[in-house]
Amino acid sequence: MKVELAGRVALVTGAAQGIGQAVADTLVRNGASVVYSDIDGQAAQEAASGGGGALGMALDVADGEAIVAGVGRVVAQFGRIDILVNNAGIGVPASGRKTIDQFDIDAWHELIKIDLTGVFLMSRSVAAIMKQQKSGRIINIASVLGLMPARLQSSYVAAKGGVVMLTKSMALELAADGILVNAVAPGSTQTPGWEAWIKNAGSEAQSLHQRLMAHIPMGRPGTTQEMAHAVLFLAAPESSYITGHVLTVDGGWTAGISRDF
Ligand SMILES: NC(=O)c1ccc[n+]([C@@H]2O[C@H](COP(=O)([O-])OP(=O)(O)OC[C@H]3O[C@@H](n4cnc5c(N)ncnc54)[C@H](O)[C@@H]3O)[C@@H](O)[C@H]2O)c1
Prior knowledge:
Strands 3-2-1-4-5-6-7 form a 7-stranded parallel β-sheet, sandwiched between helices. The chain is globular. The termini are far apart. The mean pLDDT is 94. It has one domain: NAD(P)-binding Rossmann-like Domain (Rossmann fold), CATH 3.40.50.720. It is α/β, with parallel strands linked by helices and 261 residues long. It has helices at residues 18-29, 41-51, 64-78, 105-133, 154-174, 192-199, 205-214, 224-235; strands spanning 9-12, 33-38, 55-58, 83-86, 136-141, 179-186, 246-249. Helix 1 packs across helix 8 (224-235) and helix 4 (105-133) runs parallel beside helix 5 (154-174). It is 45% helix and 14% strand. The structure holds nicotinamide-adenine-dinucleotide (NAD). Nicotinamide-adenine-dinucleotide binds at residues 13-14, 16-20, 38-40, 59-62, 87-91, 114, 141, 143, 186, 188-189, 191-194.
């Protein structure tokens, strides 16, 4: 898929690896000037130079002050922000999979701070710039687990459910200013984070992986490139009448787990 993003400035969070890196690389290939940001600044710079990005920088989406400074730096250097991709996120490690009564409170707060509050803080800061421009695209990376629940990872499900509704409420608030807000909800996607999650599941790993695959009608995980193409579509000039939409990219997972009956 090829679209025309020449002259557009994009900021991608969590762009040092996985889905964020593929998104950033894809936006570059379609002509955008892309800022690769990540909590790991060194890795962000390496990814940016490998992918042809305009800048790689450290940015922790859970740090409100750093966000204001980081967004300010991007605007000072490039003059505008046309596309924000809120991708940075963490999951619940295998060791943290617990029922609600045992779920670790600090781990709960940590995940909500990054996966949900991070989207709020980044969007808040960048929307102010986009309002002045009277245009912009905000694309949030949610998850199928923001649409359908799963056991033993309540913080992640709650955060991603929050991202889905935050996407829709921001779409309502910002439409009159020419800012379109959408989300991509990936299903299981082969990334370093995903691989670590599967591996760290210990003795459960094989059965967890097999069960996961058994519930995907297409029988395989998605690739980071497949997620990046969905983001590219929502960033494209052609998708000018789409806002408040959540695009699932999941090999059919949310279509129903009862397909065998
Ligand atoms: N991989 C999947 O199966 C899958 C499925 C659904 C949704 N997602 C979502 O896609 C997004 C990317 O996932 P991934 O699998 O590519 O993850 P990943 O773990 O491979 O990469 C995440 C990146 O985010 C960075 N990051 C972590 N905390 C950060 C912070 N506080 N501030 C800035 N950057 C931070 C990491 O350094 C890393 O580079 C996440 O929001 C995740 O929830 C992934």
